[in-house]
Every structure is written in C-alpha cells, then in structure tokens.
Write a structure and sequence with these properties.
Layout: H1 3-10, H2 12-61, E1 76-78, E2 83-88, E3 112-118, E4 121-129, E5 135-141, H3 142-178, H4 180-191, H5 210-256, H6 262-292, E6 300-303, H7 304-321, E7 325-328, E8 335-338, H8 340-357, E9 363-370, E10 374-381, H9 412-423, E11 426-430, E12 433-434, E13 437-438, E14 440-447
Parallel strand pairs: 7-9
Antiparallel strand pairs: 1-2, 2-5, 3-4, 4-5, 6-8, 9-10, 10-14, 11-14, 12-13
Helix pairs in contact: 1-2, 2-3, 5-6, 6-9, 7-8, 8-9
Amino acid sequence: MDGIEGKMNRSIQFKLSVWLFLVIVLIALAGGAFSFVKAFHEANELQDDQLRQIAALINRYNLPLPSVKSQEVEPVADSDSRVIVQTLQQGGDQKLNPAHDALVLPGNLADGIQTLTVRDEPWRLYVKTLGSGSKIAIAQQTAVRDEIARDSALRTVMPFAILIPLLLLVVGFLIKQMFMPVKKLALDLDRRSEQDLGQLSETHLPSEIVPFVVAINRLLARVVRSVALQRRFVTDAAHELRSPLTALWLQAERLEAADMSAQARTRLAALKSGLRRTRILLDQLLSLARAQEPSSDKAGPISLQRIVRQVLEDLMPLAESKSLDLGMLNDTDATIAASEVDIKTLVKNLVDNAIRYTPDGGRIDLSVTATETRANLRIDDTGPGIAGEERERVFDPFYRVLGNSEVGSGLGLSIVKTIAERIGASVMLEAASSSPPTGLSVVVTFSRIS
C-alpha cells in the first residue's frame, strides 16, 4: 500500500483531489475536441459563404471579368486569401497557357458549391451563372481553407488550455480550505496536555464532521469521569491511611522511650524508617493527585525570586543537617503567571530532591535568569546526577534510579512534570558539569509577564 495508491486509500482529501482533477481534465479534453471540430466546420462554412458573397457582388455590380480567349484566360486572384476568380468557357475544357495561374476547369460545371481536384490538389469552387449569361468560378485551395479553419479552431480552444491549469489550482485550493477545519481540530487536540480533557468546540465545523466531534466529546466526558474516580480513590486512600499511620508513628515514638535491648532498638529504628518512607509516599501521592486536578487557584503575577526564597527558608534545616551549601547565586527576579501553590510545590520538590541526593558537604546553587518573554529557574547540585538514557524515565511515577539508597517515593519529578505541563512550562535535565559529567542541573522555563 505504498506510493500513490496507498496515499489515495488513506487520504480523503487526496482521493477527492485526484478524482476531481481527472474529471475536469477529461471533460475539458472532450469539450475542447468538440469545440475544435465545431469551430473547424463553422470556419469552412464561413469561407463557403465568402465565395458566395464574392459571386453575388460581381453579379450585382457588374464588376469587370477576365477576358476569355482561345489561348489565354487571365484570373483575378487575392494573394491573402488565395481566392481565384475566373470565367468558364462554354462547351468544353479550357486549354490555357501553363504559365498562367488560371485553373483548368470543365466548362459544363453545375452552379453551386463543390470540391474539385485540379493539378492533383483539391479546390473548393463556387460556380455561378451571371445575369449576362456568362459563368464564373470562385475557387479557393482546400489546404489554404483548412489552414485558416484550423487557426480559427485553435483560437477557440486556446481558452481551455489556459483555464484548465487555473481551474485545477483553484479546485485544489478550495479542497484544502474545506479540510482546514479538520486539520485545525487535529492540531488543537495534539497541542493539549494530558490533563486538558475539555470539550472540543463544534462551531465553524462542517456538518459532516460534527457527529465525530460530538462522539469525541462524549468519550472525553467518560474519560474525565474515570480519571476523576481514580484520583478520588487515590486521595481518599491516602487520607484514610494517614490516620492509622500517624497512630503507628506515635506508638513507635512512645516505644522508643521504653527500656529495650539493642536488638529491639535496631528493629524499632527499621520500623520508624519504614513508617517515615510510607508517610513521605502518602504526602507525595496527595501532592500528585492535587497536581493532576484542574487548578482552582487563580493564576496571577507571581515573583519567582520570592517563591524560591520561601522554599529555601523551609528546607534550610534539612540542608544544614547534611552540611550542604544551599543558596541563590543572584538576585534576578521575573514575574510569571501561575498559581502560587503550584509554583511553590514545583520548586519545593526540585530543591528537596537536590538535598536528598547530594552527598554530605555538597553544594546546591539556584539562579534565576530572564529574557523578554522567558524566565528560567536553574538548580545545580553536586550529587551523582542522572544518566542520559534515564532522564526521560525519571518523570514517570514511582520510577527511581537504581543503586540509590536515599529514602524517596519516586513521585517528586512526576509532580514537577505534571505541574509544568499544566502551567505551560518546560523542564530539562542535564549534567551540571560537562567534563567529567557529574551532578545534575534542572532548568525550568516559564512564560514571563512583561
């Protein structure tokens, strides 16, 4: 199914264009051929009428005729149309001097239009008996007549040759314009984020496409309900699990104050570590569920520098516990349009990840840069980094890089990606240092408000 045949079977627009082009060309060829034959015939009819008119003028106004002698007949000829006017001898064929241009014609030709072969060439004759009793012949060579008729017919067909290519271009343009709403609809769907499951607009669409759009909207509505049920289940489950988990944590804290053996304390420490990881997982699940839901917070002008500094204040104790050098490299600020909760959650997850995966005594640098239309938040750390082949996978929920012992849920970057797509931002991961490639650099690009 490759080539033109496969393309025709797949594309309605291409199939419609090809068939319309073929129909137009065939009709134009048939019309052109009919017009040529008709114009050619009418041109010959017109030339026959011209011969009759010449004879009628000679008869009406008694125009002078060539003299008729036994050995000499002088013709009257028109060099442009190559029409010969000559008298006919009565009672036999004319015997003429070969040097003369007169035709050798029988004297007993009947009046009227006829075709006669003279000197091995066909001639068209109009013979008429004048009022004076003499007979004249108005002759024109058939080849000359056909040439004139052919030129006239070609001039008649010429508009077809000019208009057919223009008509094909116009038809192709019109077909393309008619399919433009379908392409715009496909482009609108393709540009949507995973969280955008809103209804498609049915306005300005051809009536043939509206049923498909209605069906797609119904499908989107069912998907929205299904996704909402799943998110609600995750949220409700996380909330329900937090209460018994908090009770277990309190019991573990109380148990730690009791007298117990070293082996029991080791097992209690393992229990508390598991509870801590579970609590982090539940918090991240709730954050991911909130990030995937349409934001109800109003998107307003937000100072990116202010949000970053608030996050640094919240997470500074965690960084100090690992003796990390955490701070801003510059004071550049940029105003972006987003929900403050979304931006704070995004930045907090990125900084928290950097703190968790940077070894003790390491360094984490944040910076804000801005252009006329964009604002960039960059976070560089001296941690182990992420291999190039895994930089796309780490945005998947629950995916964690192998060989890392840090406590985590694998949801942090997934939350960042979800929020970024919802607010129209982009996230890029790269090595913080190129030679050798070490550490991780995260660059988040926002649309800036002037």
